[in-house]
Write a structure and sequence with these properties.
41% of the residues lie in helices and 22% in strands. The protein has 478 residues and is an alpha/beta fold. The protein has a 7-stranded mixed β-sheet with strand order 15-16-17-14-13-19-20, sandwiched between helices. Helix 2 packs across helix 6, helix 3 packs across helix 4 and helix 7 runs parallel beside helix 8. It starts with a strand and ends with a strand. Bound molecules: nicotinamide-adenine-dinucleotide. The site of nicotinamide-adenine-dinucleotide (NAD) has 32 residues, from helix 7 and helix 8.
């Protein structure tokens, strides 16, 4: 049994009231460890440590801060295998995904922002009678709250820019997948991150997370998670005038036109549907296909999806591992039942998978559903599992209307070689991100985030460094 601890002022420490939660391995459905069930007192201690460390960290020359954060990146890569194994065990994702996507990207997050901080600059404005310049100063203590689907990847996507900008951090990783964040703290220490600069409090959202959001000394909250929790956090933090970045749920459309590069589209659409068991906020779960291509696509797609192998996350043969928790397993299956009630037809999947040797694990077959109306709950609500829907469309205008006709607006994917149509769609899509003839190809300098119920604010590149700094204008009379 592993016991995870909080990390405060450079040291691992037990939660003040000594309470712990069980930590489950989704592959086997069994408890393999414990994590702190922290409360407000733990958050107070972490914030106090961060506050004490802030002046020296903020004043540190950028080159020195760069060197430390770069060393964190190298420390993550030096521990690639151990971190990948931990991530896979904790979340149920395949070891291959953790090894090739999650952990390298966590290292890259630190490398990217370690470099970015050296180039971060602010504006100046000149007039004959005045010279104004903008200072961008770190905020102080900031809170970083992350979800379970890409645990270390998304946690470091917040922590790295927060530290690069000169803030001290109190992190709250998902209670469902706390293990790699726990291991990161040791890497931070070895890389020379001074005590108190990075702190971490484990526990549930309503207890530990909420205490962090409510803490008066915490100046900003960077949150990634569900729309429901994001709305609640906004309600708590907005009257306290905290800076807020909210990266929330999605129900992303994948618009496929008959003139697309078919083979590339098909291969990518299998990935964009079921990568990480469909538990990526960018997965294209609503697939809309131009009518002349619909039947061919359906046949080929269902054949490819049916051939995907669901199995133990550690097996190199597995394309899909387990979904993250029993609660999520039940939720995804309940949506499949609902799809049938709503008039949908299951083209493949639609049921749990029994993996030999892992009979109590939470495995679901990749599921393709057709025949659902646009207003059904399965089309309108985020399922966040290995479930996609197929719908035909006839015109560009109809495709756009269907794509936009949900409460979410994170990303969209468009498959076409028609330039005029591409511009029409990219202009009209109500999302923060559009992929054209590709999916999840990331350039960390680009703004990342959504509109509508998918959140407010942008992460990535300068946007992240601007979020984690306060602007102050200074004007000189000449
Ligand atoms: P969740 O909202 O349940 O939890 C996310 C984090 O918030 C966890 O650390 C949780 O403990 C914490 N939390 C929950 N309630 C809180 C509260 N009242 N106060 C403070 N903290 C609280 O989400 P989840 O189930 O962990 O993650 C899945 C969701 O995340 C999906 O909706 C998915 O779309 C979304 N997501 C969005 C993005 C994006 O970039 N937009 C990326 C990944 C995941």
């Amino acid at each position: 049994m592993s016991t995870i601890q909080n990390f405060i002022n450079g040291q691992y420490s037990a939660p003040i009231h000594g309470q712990y939660l069980d930590n489950y391995a989704p592959a086997s459905g069994t408890v393999y460890g414990q994590l702190p069930d922290s409360g407000p007192e733990d958050v107070d201690a972490a914030v106090a440590a961060a506050e004490a460390a802030f002046p020296a960290w903020a004043a540190m020359p950028p080159e020195q801060r760069h060197d430390i954060l770069h060393a964190v990146s190298e420390g993550i890569m030096a521990n690639l295998e151990a971190l990948a194994e931990a991530e896979s065990m904790d979340s149920g994702k395949t070891l291959r995904t953790a090894r090739t996507v999650d952990i390298p990207r966590a290292a890259l997050n630190f490398k990217f922002f370690a470099t970015a901080l050296l180039h971060f600059a602010a504006e100046s404005h000149h007039q004959p009678q005045s010279l104004s310049y903008t200072l961008r100063q770190p905020l102080g203590v900031v809170g970083c709250i992350s979800p379970w689907n890409l645990p270390l990847y998304l946690f470091t996507w917040k922590v790295a820019p927060a530290l690069a900008a000169g803030n001290c951090v109190v992190g709250k990783p998902s209670e469902v997948t706390p293990l790699t964040a726990h291991l990161l703290a040791d890497i931070m220490n070895k890389a020379g991150v001074p005590p108190g600069v990075f702190n971490m409090v484990h526990g549930t959202g309503p207890r530990a997370g909420e205490a962090l959001v409510r803490h008066p000394k915490v100046k900003a909250i960077s949150f990634t998670g569900s729309t429901r929790a994001g709305a609640h956090i906004a309600g708590v933090a907005a009257p306290m005038f905290k800076k807020l970045s909210l990266e929330l749920g999605g129900k992303n459309p994948n618009l496929i036109f008959a003139d697309c590069d078919y083979d590339k589209m098909l291969e990518t659409t299998v990935r964009s549907s079921f990568n990480n068991q469909g538990q990526i906020c960018l997965c294209g779960s609503r697939i809309y296909v131009e009518r002349p291509l619909y039947e061919k696509f359906k046949t080929d797609f269902v054949a490819r999806v049916s051939a995907l192998k669901v199995g133990a996350p550690t097996s190199p043969a597995s394309d899909l591992g387990a979904v993250v928790s029993k609660m999520h397993f039940d939720k995804v299956l309940s949506y499949i039942d609902l799809a049938i009630e709503e008039g949908g037809t299951i083209l493949c999947g639609g049921a749990p998978v029994m993996v030999p040797g892992h009979e109590n694990g939470w495995y679901i077959a990749p599921t393709v559903i057709e025949g659902l109306g646009q207003n059904t709950r399965c089309i309108q609500e985020e399922i966040f599992g290995p479930v996609v829907t197929l719908q035909p469309f006839d015109t560009d205008e109809e495709a756009l209307a269907l794509a936009n006709d949900v409460p979410y607006g994170l990303s969209a994917t468009v498959w076409t070689n028609n330039l005029r149509r591409t511009h029409f769609l990219t202009n009209g899509l109500q999302t923060g991100i559009v992929w054209v003839n590709t999916w999840m190809l990331r350039d960390l300098r680009t703004p990342f985030g959504g509109v509508k119920n998918s959140g407010v604010g942008r992460e990535g590149g300068w946007d992240a460094l601007r979020f984690f700094t306060e602007t102050k204008n200074v004007t000189y009379g000449l």
